[in-house]
Amino acid sequence: MNKDFLEISRRCGRAMGDYEMLRSADRVLIAVSGGKDSLALLHILLYRQKILPFRTTLKAVHVDMSFPGFPVKKLERHFQQLGVDYHIEKIDPFKGKKARGLNCFWCSRSRRKVLFDLAQRFGFNKIAFGHHMDDIVETILLNLFFRGELGAMRPKQDLFDGKLTLIRPLAYEKEERITKLARALKLDKVCPFRCPQENDTQRKMIKRLLARLEKKNPSIKKNIFHSLRNVREEYLLDLPA
Q1: What are the Cα distances from residue 127, in Å, to 34, 79, 90, 168?
Q2: At 152, which CATH number?
Q3: Rounded distance, CA 29 to CA 86, Å?
Q4: How many independent structural domains does the chain possess?
Q5: Helix, coil or strand: residue 213
Q6: What is the domain extent for residue 54?
Q7: Which of 4-13, 98-107, 121-130 has the lowest mean pLDDT?
Q8: What is the pTM of this model?
Q9: What DSSP string runs through 19-82?
Q10: Is the predicted pLDDT of residue 12 greater than 90, yes or no?
Q11: For residue 241, is it within any domain?
Q12: 95 versus 232: which is more confidently predicted?
């Protein structure tokens, strides 16, 4: 067993334990975009399913956004090789849309709506996303810089009065370690596809900023991540009377 895989699996297990992400009889959809993060999550959850002291049901789900050139068949073969139950939902969200109006936020929202519908259709109560610590930290800064608010993606988030729960088991994991694991497992070869908009986003700008800051302070991402657990309310602004 790959050493990096086991270390990431342990941190994943700690995050799931800290936030009570899984319980007996949970039915979990694993949102697999085809990128390294979601594929790594799929492999780790399949492994952890075997060592959990209770029974869970996992199903890999890919929302095919009809991107030209996306290797859907290669992803499907990977699912089949793993022996995981899976579903591929093909949609065409760009039909009738102008390219200028499309962005990462719109694309993510469209995909998430489909995932919510699939969870209801198949009777699943949880959706697992491959977001890691870098994603959460970047979201904190995106909300701060561009929306004027303090907030982040939560490792566990209940929706619709608890009928559906979003979980992010890789919340304690840094992107660089997942990238290293993906190369070792050759996950980067499963779907060698790059979004045409990925270099022209606010998130990319934040990622470059963090990379520069991290050279001065290697703990900066962990500090930002933990800041939302260490809120000093007495120093926050009060609304004017």
Answers
A1: 16, 17, 18, 9
A2: 3.40.50.620
A3: 9
A4: 1
A5: helix
A6: 3-235
A7: 98-107
A8: 0.91
A9: TT---TT-EEEEE--SSHHHHHHHHHHHHHHHH-SS--EEEEEEEE---TT--HHHHHHHHHHH
A10: yes
A11: no
A12: 232
